[in-house]
């Protein structure tokens, strides 16, 4: 593991695949909608290659052209409705990643600024706050999600906005991510440090990417030196 970078004062967390292991459900929902859109079966690798992008960008990839905003929004909400149904059909899987609640409790007790920076749409973020009681740790008004007003990952804007919500420069923030595109976004934003969550190992070689201090299967082994630096 690389040494932690100094001067970290806030934490920015991706949500899907990082705080909640739900990638399989997103893939199934996109495969279902994608087949409706293109009239052929959509493969898992096709969808996996687009994970982390905002919905409008994924829809453009499927169709080969941009959509009017109202149509893109309607299709996006249709996909997310599929996804939320899949989540509700799997109550055993509807929980935050192991070790995360304890970490969030520690950050809250230490007064460390924190928020969520996600490609999820607002309707999903609202569901997460309801399902997981996220208001114990986060201010909903500080969460940055896909509202169509800025480019998606790997563009840095989501992390720049999230850091600004905390009143910090991105260079003072630790980013926790699971995807290559999310890590690229954090790098482009100038994040002060990056921790990657990869429950199935590190097939994408995330540990070798610049700025990545650790690659973890969950939050139980979160680096103590990073926590100590944040909690001073």
UniProtKB/TrEMBL annotation:
Q: Which family does it belong to?
A: Belongs to the HAD-like hydrolase superfamily. CbbY/CbbZ/Gph/YieH family.
Which UniProt key words apply to this protein?
Answer: Carbohydrate metabolism, Magnesium, Metal-binding
Q: Which cofactor does it need?
A: Mg(2+)
> Organism source for this protein?
Candidatus Anaerotruncus excrementipullorum
Q: InterPro entries from the xrefs?
A: Beta-PGM-like (IPR051600), HAD-like_sf (IPR036412), HAD-SF_hydro_IA (IPR006439), HAD_sf (IPR023214), PGP-like_dom2 (IPR023198)
Q: Is Magnesium there in the keyword field?
A: yes
Q: What PANTHER family does the record point to? A: 6-PHOSPHOGLUCONATE PHOSPHATASE, HEXITOL PHOSPHATASE B
Per its record, how is this protein called by name?
HAD family phosphatase
């Amino acid at each position: 593991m690389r040494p932690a970078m100094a001067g970290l004062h806030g934490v920015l967390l991706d949500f899907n695949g990082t705080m909640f292991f739900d990638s399989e459900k997103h893939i199934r929902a996109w495969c279902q909608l994608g087949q409706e859109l293109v009239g052929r079966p959509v493969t898992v690798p096709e969808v996996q290659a687009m994970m982390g992008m905002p919905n409008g960008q994924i829809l453009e990839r499927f169709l080969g052209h941009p959509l009017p905003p109202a149509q893109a929004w309607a299709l996006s909400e249709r996909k997310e409705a599929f996804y939320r149904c899949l989540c509700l059909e799997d109550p055993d899987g509807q929980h935050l990643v192991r070790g995360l609640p304890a970490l969030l409790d520690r950050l809250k007790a230490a007064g460390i600024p924190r928020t969520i920076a996600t490609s999820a749409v607002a309707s999903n973020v609202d569901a997460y706050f309801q399902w997981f009681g996220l208001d114990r740790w986060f201010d909903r008004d500080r969460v940055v999600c896909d509202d169509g007003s800025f480019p998606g990952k790997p563009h840095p804007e989501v992390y720049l906005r999230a850091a600004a919500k905390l009143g910090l420069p991105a260079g003072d923030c630790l980013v926790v991510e699971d995807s290559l595109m999310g890590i690229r976004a954090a790098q482009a934003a100038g994040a002060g440090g990056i921790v990657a969550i990869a429950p199935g190992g590190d097939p994408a070689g995330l540990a070798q990417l610049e700025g990545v201090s650790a690659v973890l299967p969950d939050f139980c082994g979160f680096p103590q030196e990073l926590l100590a630096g944040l909690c001073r």
